[in-house]
Each structure stands twice: as C-alpha cells, then as structure tokens.
Amino acid sequence: MIPYAKQHIDNNDIASVVGAIRSDWLTQGPKVILFEKELAKYCGAKYAVAVSNGTTALHLAYMAIGLSKNDEVITTPNTFVATSNMVLVCGARPKFCDIRMDTYNIDENKIEKLVTKKTKAIVPVHFAGQPCDMRYIQSIAKKHRLLVIEDACHALGSKYENDKIGSCKYSDMTVFSFHAIKAITTAEGGAILTNSKKLYDMLVLLRSHGIQKDKNGFNVMLELGYNYRLTELQAALGLSQMKKLDKLIRMRRMIARKYQQALKNVDDIILPKEIDDNYSGWHIYVIRAKKAKDRLPLYKHLIKFGIGVNFHYPAVYKYPYYKKLGYAKIKCANMEEYHKSAITIPLYPGFYNVQIKTVCEAIKSFYAK
Ligand SMILES: *Cc1c(COP(=O)(O)O)cnc(C)c1O
Fold first, then answer.
1. One domain for residues 28 and 104
2. Are residues 205 and 285 in the same domain?
3. How high is the pLDDT of residue 87?
4. Residues 350 and 298 placed together within one structural domain of the fold
5. The predicted structure's pLDDT at residue 153
6. What is the model's pLDDT at position 125?
7. 175, 207, 242: which is the final residue of a domain?
8. Were both Cys, which of 12, 95, 186, 344 would link to 310 (CB 3.0–4.6 Å)?
C-alpha cells in the first residue's frame, strides 16, 4: 500500500538523535534553544517558541492573547479540528467562515460579515501549504482591532509574496506542527513564531507552568501554565530536518508538477492550483471529482490499486461534538461542495516516479471505464 503521506528520515537524522540521547540533557535544553533560533532565522521572525505539538502551540498562542469566555474567533471549517478545538478549550467560540473555491482557504471577503463586538482574533489556515490572502486579512484585523494567528501547520517552507510563512509580517503569531507527516518532523512537536517580545515572554512562561526564576534563582509562579515543552531528542531531530527543509519542499513541488502534467487532460477532475504571490510547500495534494457522485467510487478504486487516499477535511462544524454545541444550523456552501468532491492523493518526499505513474494510471483507468 502506498501511503498518502510519510516522514523523510535519513542517517543524519538518526545520528543527530543518537547524539542527543547520549548527552547529559534530555529535557528542554540547549538543542531546543538552537532549534528555535534556526526556525526564527529560516522564517524571518524575531522569536520562536518550541512546544510539544501543533495543538499545544495553538493553545498557547490563544492563551497568550488572553482568549477566554465571551470571545469569538473567526476561522475556516476546512482544517484539522485542533484549530477550533483549542478555541473551545479557552472557553471562547469559533465562528466558521466559508472558503474560496480556487485555494480552499478561508474566503477573506466573507470574514468581515462575521465580525462582532466579541470577535478577538482571526485564525487563517494555509490549507495544503497554499498561503491565505494575508495582506487583506491583516487589513480587516487592523480595521476592527483584531489579532491574527496563522495556523501554518501545513505551510512551513511556503512563501507568501516574497516572505516565508512564519515571518509574521501580516500576523501576530504563526503556529507550526512537526508531526511525522508535516514538512519537517520531530515525531511530535510544534512552535509559535512572533515578532512581539511581550507575546514571546508570555508563551515561554505558559509553556512551563507559568513559572519564572527570580534574581536569586527561586521559582516564582506568575500564571496558570502547562508543561508543553519539547525534548532535546526531538529538537535534535528538528535541527537535522531543518537542514534539508528546502530540499524537501523542492521534492514536494516537483511531485505536484508531475501530477499536474500527467493529469491535466483528465476532464473529470479538478487539480489544485497555486495562485499568484504564493509558493506552496504542497503539504497535501487534493484533487476534486467534477461530478461529486464519482468521489466515493474513485476513492474505492484507488484503494483497490493499493493507493492510500484520504479526505481533507470534513467541515469541522459537521462533527457530532460541534453539532451538540449548537453548530448544527451552520452551512458554508462552498465548504460543503468542496468536501463532497475532494480526495487527497499521495505526495511526500521520496515518492518515486513509478509511484506517481501508478497513481495517475489508476485515476485514468477509473474514468476510462
Ligand atoms: C497537524 C495540524 C494541527 C495539529 O498539529 P499536531 O502537531 O498534530 O498537534 C493543527 N492544525 C492543522 C491545520 C494541522 O494540519
């Protein structure tokens, strides 16, 4: 079975982790600090805070802006549940904004209608690695005095205009995940990037129990925090992965180009496209069946050929838990049309030409029937 996504581990990664496990330091230490420096430098932001995963990164980012009861956050329903789940964990309410049909990202033109007195932040998600219209999103945020937190868990290595995602040029914070199948991995891991010293200090405090050392070296607890720290073993893996990040992104882009060439004449499917100003890291490759009724049979057909396929994503507000919370009446028309037709096909660094061919032939054979 060809998986739809897979990590890329080489001997340098293994040597790096072995070095860390032999060192005197296993929990958060010098390698975590180095990893944060590399991340900040790569993205062009002032600060990076490494944490245990992308979900805890979102939680800390929301806590750092003081998100709480009576606040609302505008986000996309086309995301992994963690984006809005952490809003709920803070006691606040996510408001789901419909998506664009060219990028499947939040439709920036529909955000302003959802702004109320309670709105505190906008959380765009760079779906599949394709950046959102950050310039416009920031302009709405400025007008209504809202914060912007980018969920860039798909988009490490992507660029918007000429800036790397994570530069926080048009946002207050950017969140990444280093889960096994993301652009780089630390097995589990995440980070928050920011240019604000104030937010940085708060994130660091909340990551470790809200405790700080005073000038005599005594622990002082100032905030109700957590243990969301990354380990040295994970940071060691992250450091060696960072060295090949650009290469991994180029490999992903090459596969996307090959799919594009091989499938462009299949009339019954819609291929994803990169729009102007965007350089996508192609976290996933989502095709759409022009006739929604073809989706499930095509999905099953591909599985029969040993091809790992997936669905990204069902609308978050459609999950039973969200329905129970009062989201049953929400309807984002584009989101629902999108989801009825979308299938994720395999794409990861080290996905070979013969495998690309297998996938493309399987798709073509479905429509040749
Ligand atoms: C992966 C992901 C997360 C969560 O990251 P974890 O590291 O798995 O906790 C959040 N948002 C999006 C869009 C993701 O893809």
1. yes
2. no
3. 98
4. yes
5. 98
6. 98
7. 242
8. 344
Question: What does the pLDDT read at residue 215?
Answer: 94
Q: Which domain holds residue 269?
A: 245-367
pLDDT 10s digits, 186-201? 999 999 999 999 999 9
Ligand 1 nearest atom to the CA of residue 154, by list position? 15
Q: Give me the pLDDT at residue 74, please.
A: 98
- Please tell me the distance between residue 177's alpha carbon and the centre of ligand 1 in angstroms: 6
Q: Is the pTM of this model over 0.90?
A: yes
Mutation probe of ligand 1 site: the residue of 75, 177, 228, 310 with most atoms within 8 A of C-beta: 177
Q: Is there a domain that residue 75 lies in?
A: yes
Domain annotation covers residue 237: yes
| CA 69 to each of CA 53, 73, 90, 96, 352: distance values in angstroms, whole numbers, following the listed order | 24, 11, 7, 17, 49
Is the pLDDT reported for residue 369 higher than 80? Answer: no
Q: Say if 137 falls within a structural domain.
A: yes
Which residues lie below 8 Å from residue 324, measured CB to CB, with a gap of 6+?
A: none
What digits encode the pLDDT tens for the residues 317-330? 999 999 999 999 99
How many angstroms separate the CA atoms of 251 and 159, rounded?
16
Mutating to test ligand 1, I would choose from 7, 55, 56, 99 the residue with most ligand atoms within 8 A of its C-beta, which is 55
Alpha-carbon distance 127 to 183, whole Å? 13
